[in-house]
TrEMBL record:
InterPro entries: HDACs, His_deacetylse_dom, His_deacetylse_dom_sf, Ureohydrolase_dom_sf
Cofactor entry: Zn(2+)
Organism whose genome encodes this protein: Panicum hallii
A GO term, aspect molecular function: histone deacetylase activity
Source taxon at top rank: Eukaryota
Name recorded for this polypeptide: Histone deacetylase domain-containing protein
Gene3D superfamilies per record: Gamma-glutamyl cyclotransferase-like, Histone deacetylase domain
């Protein structure tokens, strides 16, 4: 889908299989390395075992365009085509050569060898290239050349590469040139990337292998032990403006490794604001250049360094700042109003104390302050409850709860309110929007160094009723609503931005009923909170899920 009117590769595959039997092509491998999920191709061949479809793409838990759950690794085909649809969904941006090579070596190539295609069609979008303003990934021309080289050993070298996308002309030119040289038989020497795959890359690869091993026994073997890895990029990197990406001047040399194209930057407005107040002496910051794919990991130390594996060490001043805002906000209390699974207190406490409750597939890391809420109460609010998106890692297939930010006095939605500190509210906001980093090497949990909601933002919301958090504008719950006051404390909740409501109305984003497990969690909250009985809770959820916007 995306910006294409016609799916050239899918049309070509259909033509070869159904209109030209004289060519003897009975099995086709389609490789889609475009940064977006190949949802159109997937739908065309979802039950066709003659086509092995492989899409590696940014997914970001379903929030990256086209923002549909069918880009998840769980979507493997249906009927006779089950097992012939392979999605490798990256959890975040900044994935580069090492991540894609790992997906090739541990998923695509073993399955391709077993499938033994007669021809390979490559949907060659280059918006995952280093320098592309939309993709946010970091594949170098050398990386693309190696990915293509690895496919030459199959289908007797019969490969068609169809140019499909990319939004930086220099990145496209260099990447296509490198691939064309491979197809023309030029000798190619690739130096292993100095960057290692992200920890999340191995987690995704393992999930894909587990999902498909029943259909492809070659994936049943264990991944190598002692894998080298990097930590997930910091929030400031992940949510940096695409305008900060290099425009191509550093990707000219095909034989070069990753170029040194940037230094530390903080695109997060909240972080930048606090840093400007500190008046940091730039002469005291020791900066070593790293590639544009470097990851930022925050630790207290006396200097700022970027080393070769992409880790970033922040100055002690920044660490002190982090402690300062937490100390300040720990003295301010707010009501956090939950309308979704957090209405059930055991589920809510996972965001405070860590762990997972019944029905959850993955645990929460919890808040820095694990104190229980100082009070709980219920009320109804004049906002429409809806269930949007179609998949989450925690609850599986199905929609999750959102409140329409627009006030409608004809609507009534239940909210369970917890009296917590503003520090805890920020930690919940971090977790809800996946801004907490987990260090795969030593198990540490790293939170952002600056709050998204401070006293100023609360005052702003009391006048303007909402604040859309620009640093996390693409996240599902980036809109913080002010719902009034209770006992002279503000009532806050988090939901989708108004722009997402318009996308739901147009059908660009899917509305979907909740999974049985997720719905049961909401019902338990309503029942244990003595708002509705089980039947009434089910009717309330079903009615919200059934109505259009």
């Amino acid at each position: 889908m995306g910006f294409c009117l016609f799916n050239n590769v899918a049309v070509a595959a259909n033509y070869l299989l159904n209109d030209r039997p004289d060519l003897g092509i009975k099995k086709i491998l389609i490789v889609d390395w475009d940064v977006h999920h190949g949802n159109g191709t997937q739908k065309m061949f979802y039950n066709d075992p003659r086509v092995l479809f492989f899409s590696v793409h940014r997914f970001d838990y379903g929030s990256f365009y086209p923002s549909e759950g069918d880009g998840s690794h769980c979507f493997i085909g249906e009927e006779s085509g089950k097992g012939y649809n392979i999605n490798v969904p990256w959890e975040h941006g900044k994935c580069g050569d090492a991540d894609y090579i790992a997906a090739w070596d541990h998923v695509l190539l073993p399955v391709t060898e077993a499938f033994d295609p007669d021809i390979i069609l490559v949907s060659a979008g280059f918006d995952a290239a280093l320098g592309d303003p939309l993709g946010g990934c970091c594949i170098t021309p050398n990386g693309y050349a190696l990915l293509l080289t690895k496919l030459l050993g199959f289908a007797k070298g019969r490969i068609v590469m169809a140019l499909e996308g990319g939004y930086n002309l220099r990145s496209i030119a260099n990447s296509v040139f490198a691939c064309a040289k491979v197809l023309l038989g030029d000798k190619f020497t690739f130096s292993s990337p100095e960057m290692q795959p992200f920890e999340s890359t191995w987690r995704v690869i393992q999930a894909v292998r587990d999902e498909l091993k029943t259909y492809w026994p070659v994936l049943s073997s264990k991944l190598p032990e002692n894998l080298s890895l990097r930590i997930k990029p910091s929030p400031s990197e992940l949510y940096a403006s695409s305008d900060s990406e290099p425009d191509g001047e550093d990707v000219d040399e095909l034989s070069g490794a990753l170029s040194s194209v940037n230094v530390i930057q903080f695109a997060d407005d909240a972080i930048s604001e606090h840093l400007s107040k500190m008046k940091l002496d730039e002469e005291n910051l020791a900066v070593k250049t790293a590639s544009s794919c470097s990851t930022a990991e925050h630790h207290p130390t006396d200097s700022v360094e970027v080393d070769i594996d992409g880790s970033v060490v922040l100055s002690k001043r920044i660490s002190d700042l982090s402690l300062a805002w937490r100390s300040d906000l720990s003295r301010t209390h707010v009501w956090y109003a939950s309308f979704g699974s957090n209405m059930w207190k055991p589920r809510f406490l996972c965001y405070i104390q860590g762990g997972k409750a019944e029905g959850m597939s993955i645990p929460c890391c919890g808040s820095r302050d694990t104190s229980s809420p100082r009070g709980t109460m219920w009320k109804t609010v004049p906002h429409r409850l809806l269930f949007g998106r179609s998949f989450t890692p925690c609850w599986g297939t199905g929609g999750v709860a959102f409140l329409n930010p627009e006030i409608n006095y004809n609507e009534k939605s239940y909210v369970c309110m917890y009296k917590i500190t503003l520090e805890q509210f920020n930690d919940i906001l971090f977790q809800e929007n996946r801004l907490v980093l987990e260090d795969g090497k030593n198990g540490n949990v790293v939170y952002p160094d600056s709050p998204l909601i401070g006293s100023y933002e609360v005052e702003f919301m009391s006048t303007n009723k909402a604040i859309h958090l620009e640093p996390i504008k693409d996240s599902w719950y980036s809109n913080v609503l002010y719902l009034g006051d209770e006992d002279e404390l503000p009532i806050l909740t988090m939901t989708c931005p108004s722009s997402d409501i318009e996308r739901y109305k147009s059908g660009e984003l899917p509305l979907a009923p909740p999974s049985k497990t997720y719905a049961a969690t909401l019902i338990k909250g309503l029942v244990e909170g003595k708002q509705l009985d089980a039947d009434g809770g089910a009717s309330y959820i079903n009615a919200a899920a059934a109505r259009g916007l």
